[in-house]
Amino acid sequence: MFRFDFRDKSLIPGIFGTDNMDYLERLCPVLEQERIHPSGVVRLRDAAFCEERGIVQLSSLAEHTALMENEDYKRLGHRFGMDGDVIRNGLAAFPTCTAVEYGQQVLLLGKTDKGDKALEDFLNDLTRHFFDEIRKPEELRFHEVAPLDAKYRVEIGNCKTASPAILRYGICTKRCDMAPTLRNFNRLRNLQPMSAPLTKEQERIVSSLVGLPDNVQFQNVEMKVRTPAKRKGQGINI
């Protein structure tokens, strides 16, 4: 389920009281002309959960990331979850794949052992360079997307780069803030099934952040002791 947002409501084709079999044929040319894409994409299982719990559809509380914090939703994961086992066993009618969005980079990962390994390698690399002095995207996002083209699904294989456009039809399932704080570093490491051991430099950085507020960012600035300049005719007592 999703919605189309029109700036000019007069462009929306009318719904007749009798037959609307051709509605998509009337709607699609307008969408293409106005460059309107789906927004607020919702899994039908999420929609069913919201309907059952009285949560307003397409509201902020109905977003998948919000539902993932809902205790009832987590408790009923076997009914409303992502059904990863079903997808892995090839039993899903519309199998999804994981899309990892990092800036303009999008990786599509199949739900296979090799796909899991590709994701693990990607996350390990991000963790290894988490505190580096390089400009990086503010957020790492995970999506579930369901490419309907069977040929394209086969081409994805275990891992494939893709255009960010594919995320228009995806559902964001997880976000990870990439600001260099200890909390964000630990959250990133917790995403990995097998976290790599900390390097000595990372151990030094982590120890410097322990005990500080969670939102304190690591600043890679070496503390230097300044020696007063010696004035002419004066000595320095050490």
Topology, pairings included?
Elements: H1 23-34, H2 44-53, H3 64-67, H4 71-75, H5 77-80, H6 84-88, E1 97-102, E2 105-109, H7 113-128, E3 139-145, H8 150-156, E4 159-162, E5 171-177, H9 182-190, H10 200-209
Antiparallel strand pairs: 1-2, 1-3, 2-4, 3-5
Provide a descriptive summary of the structure in words.
- Helices cover 34% and strands 12% of the residues.
- The protein is an alpha+beta fold and 238 residues long.
- Among the domains are: 27-81, no CATH class; 99-207, no CATH class.
- A five-stranded antiparallel β-sheet has the order 4-2-1-3-5.
- It is elongated and about 70 Å long.
Kindly report the spatial arrangement of strands forming the biggest sheet: 4-2-1-3-5
Low-confidence stretches: 221-228, 234-238
Q: Can you give the mean pLDDT?
A: 78
For the biggest sheet, the summary is: 5 strands, antiparallel
Quickly give the structural class.
alpha+beta
Number of strands: 5
Query: So what's the overall shape?
Result: elongated
Radius of gyration: 25 Å
Q: Which percent bin holds the helix content?
A: 25-40%
SSE arrangement, N to C = HHHHHHEEHEHEEHH
N-to-C span: 74 Å
What is the helix tally? 10
Beta-strand content estimate: 5-15%
